[in-house]
Design a protein that fits this description.
The protein contains 15 helices and no strands. By secondary structure, the chain is mainly alpha-helical. The protein is globular and about 55 Å long. The N terminus is likely disordered.
Length: about 300
């Protein structure tokens, strides 16, 4: 990408913060969807709609959707869609701010994978950032607590797959168009949605057995009018946010933009308090701050 294209850092900052504010808001409404519909059915419906919209836009604007490398796009789509399935799955049992903190631990895992598997050297500052980030994750998960749920692990697993997605995007998908990657992302989520819906429809869990996993284990169910409205909010909001985020990355340096993605945690927490009165406890808030600090150090030292 040319230097001319990357010459609007303020514009890029505004776009990314706006995208994070939208996602931080609409993801709080997943709790309404989770009360009635299953995770898999939600992803199947939303992804089908988004893939259709992307296809129509591609036809209208002449975007290329065919991958340069089918294998690279398939791998990247698997990593990204898996991270989103795990992240959204956790929203049925915890706040968006807590789930988002686990997802945004991904820079920690990018460093660890790069150092331990890919042999990339990292300095003392980024090693310190990893330690700070892990401390933050522990404060949020509270593995020493008797009340800790298995669901609390899902956002961290989402962070691992999100990290793999970032590595795959940079190493394998530089030649791919934005339309191709978006279609792969939502197409992958759609595949997960269809497979999960079929499996849990044919192998239903009782409410008593499902417990905290009700959103995760629910098969196909009839959808009421209000839930269709919340799904529509997710479709429109997701498309707007992804478009803004993509453009934000196009007009400024990646390391600069990445820092402002953490505004998602602020917006998610703010809307959680305003809409539902959900306030993370002091330990979780400290954990979120440590994860933001860790990611910021990593982003700045990666310049």
């Amino acid at each position: 990408m040319s230097e001319e294209t990357r010459s609007q850092p303020l514009f890029g900052l505004v776009l990314v913060v706006m995208a994070m504010s939208i996602i931080g808001l609409i993801d709080n409404f997943v709790v309404h969807i989770a009360a009635e519909v299953g995770l898999w059915q939600f992803h199947a419906i939303r992804s089908l709609a988004l893939c259709g919209i992307i296809w129509v836009l591609a036809r209208g604007f002449g975007w290329r959707l065919r991958p340069v490398s089918w294998g690279a796009v398939a791998a990247r789509s698997f990593f990204f869609s898996t991270s989103m399935v795990l992240y959204f799955g956790s929203l049925g049992a915890m706040s968006v701010a807590q789930a988002g903190a686990g997802l945004f631990s991904s820079p920690i895992f990018v460093l660890l994978i790069s150092a331990l598997i890919l042999g990339t050297g990292i300095g003392i500052w980024r090693i310190l950032a990893v330690a700070i980030g892990f401390a933050g994750v522990l404060l949020i998960l509270k593995p020493w607590s008797d009340s800790v749920s298995v669901m609390a692990v899902l956002p961290v697993l989402a962070g691992i797959f999100y990290a793999l997605n970032g590595i795959a995007t940079r190493r394998w998908c530089e030649a791919e168009s934005t339309g191709t990657l978006l279609m792969g992302l939502f197409g992958g989520l759609g595949v997960w949605g269809v497979l999960g819906t079929i499996w849990f429809t044919l192998n239903p869990f009782s409410v008593e057995v499902a417990g905290d996993f009700a959103f995760f284990t629910r098969g196909w169910v009839p959808i009421s009018g209000p839930i269709w409205g919340w799904i529509a909010v997710q479709i429109v909001g997701s498309l707007m946010a992804v478009a803004m985020l993509t453009r934000g990355y196009q007009v400024t340096e990646v390391s600069f933009v990445t820092v402002f993605e953490y505004s998602f945690l602020i917006f998610a927490g703010f809307w959680g308090i305003v809409l539902f009165g959900v306030v993370p406890d002091g330990m979780a808030l400290l954990g979120i701050v440590l994860i933001i600090t860790s990611g910021t150090i990593i982003a700045l030292r990666s310049r």
